[in-house]
Amino acid sequence: SIKNRAAESHSALQFICGDFNWQLETSELEGLEKESGLRLDDCYIEGGGELPGFTYGVDGDSPLRIDYIYSLVATDDPLCCKNSNLILTEKDQDGLRASDHLGVMVDIEL
After folding, report:
1. DSSP element (H, E) containing 39
2. Residue 80 and residue 103: Cα distance in Å, rounded?
3. 18-34 burial, b if ≥16 CB within 10 A, otherwise e?
4. pTM, whole model, 2 decimals?
5. How far is CA 37 from the centre of its chain?
6. Do residues 102 and 54 lie in contact, with contact meaning Cβ atoms separated by under 8 Å?
């Protein structure tokens, strides 16, 4: 579980990222925080990423933000996330992107 992994290396920076298929402030996120006993900080928001930050379906009628980078935080100390951006946003000459999802990139200051 996430809680066990975090406990094994409590001094190391830890992140969980990917396509979660959920939106901000969902019961799934709350459940994950409750189960792990950790706070999951949204690195894209912490780093000043522009909202709404849609990452999926950006060319359609119902774009979603479902791809995230979370830091697992066991203390009240904030992680220093800087310069968050969406990447892989450009289309090629055929009007296609590298993926059906935009990428999320965040610089982390150690």
Report:
1. strand 39-42
2. 20
3. eebeeeeeeeebeebbe
4. 0.81
5. 18
6. yes
CB 52 within 8 A of CB 26: no
C-beta neighbour count of 51 within 10 angstroms: 9
Tens-digit pLDDT profile for the chain (110 aa)? 555 655 565 556 788 899 988 877 677 778 878 887 777 889 999 999 999 999 999 999 999 999 999 888 766 666 678 899 999 999 999 999 999 999 999 998 87
Per the rule left: phi > 0, alpha: psi between -120 and 50, beta: everything else, 48 is left
Query: Which residues make beta-bridge pairs with 85?
Result: 105
Type and span of the H or E element at 35: helix 27-36
Which tokens is 90 given?
């450009």
Instruction: State CA 16 to chain mean position distance.
Output: 8
Please state the separation of Cα 93 from the chain's center in Å. Answer: 29
